[in-house]
């Protein structure tokens, strides 16, 4: 079943066109990889799929509906950026924050399960300060905070940039397991082609804001 449908979607910043997607369908449960050089439009597309930006032109449908409450749509979607922001508090409170905002139940169990999923033992990490963590651990905590929300869609923007091999593998295992357990739809932008191909089952290449197949 189609979860996202894009038709003649265009995004502009000022007078500059940064993205033009004539047609794109993302199926529920799909793992779509986005590849392309810096400035190719990958991050813009992810922000639109996260409903953080609206298209300047065209139609972006979600779950069969072309319009609707954007805040309600955002409850189903979460975006992990390359440099995610964490609160200046413990790992547990960081992971629990979004769950509390959404009024979710069983928060402690949800936090522990999410930390386990990203390969961080709750007994060892939950009460640590975020400032005590390495770069790879910070990224995994940020991912755990998003997985704890049990989103229908997980969007990842360069999730393994500057990470060591072990952290990159942990992130791959976590998102793959979330997809297996919950049917989570994945859309991932990455320059690490080997990693990206290992986690995706389809690929979209963007070049200067357009799908590569649409280039003249």
Task: Give the structure's gist in a few sentences.
The protein is α/β, with parallel strands linked by helices and 216 residues long. The protein contains 8 helices and 9 strands.
Biggest pleated-sheet summary? 6 strands, mixed
Overall, the morphology is globular
By DSSP, the count of extended strands is 9
> What's the gyration radius in Å?
17 Å
Count of individual helical segments:
8
Distance between the termini: 31 Å
* Helix content class: 25-40%
**Low-confidence spans:** none
| Strands ordered across the widest β-sheet | 5-6-7-3-8-9
Structural class: alpha/beta
**Strand percent estimate:** 25-35%
Mean pLDDT: 94
Oligomeric assembly: single chain
Report the order of strands and helices.
Answer: EEEHEHEHHHHEHEHEE
Keywords: ATP-binding, Nucleotide-binding, Transport
GO molecular function: ATP binding
InterPro entries: AAA+_ATPase, ABC_transporter-like_ATP-bd, ABC_transpr_CbiO/EcfA_su, P-loop_NTPase
Domain ABC transporter: 4-216
Describe this structure in words.
Keywords: ATP-binding, Nucleotide-binding, Transport. It is a single chain. This protein is an alpha/beta fold and 216 residues long. The protein has eight helices and nine strands. The chain has helices at 42-49, 70-74, 91-101, 107-117, 122-125, 135-147, 165-182, 193-199, and strands at 2-13, 16-27, 31-35, 57-62, 77-80, 153-157, 185-189, 202-207, 210-211. It has a six-stranded mixed β-sheet with strand order 5-6-7-3-8-9, sandwiched between helices. Strands 2-1-4 form a three-stranded antiparallel β-sheet, covered by helices on one side. Strand 6, helix 7 (165-182) and strand 7 form a beta-alpha-beta unit. Helix 3 crosses helix 4, helix 3 runs parallel beside helix 6 (135-147) and helix 6 runs parallel beside helix 7. 40% of the residues are buried.
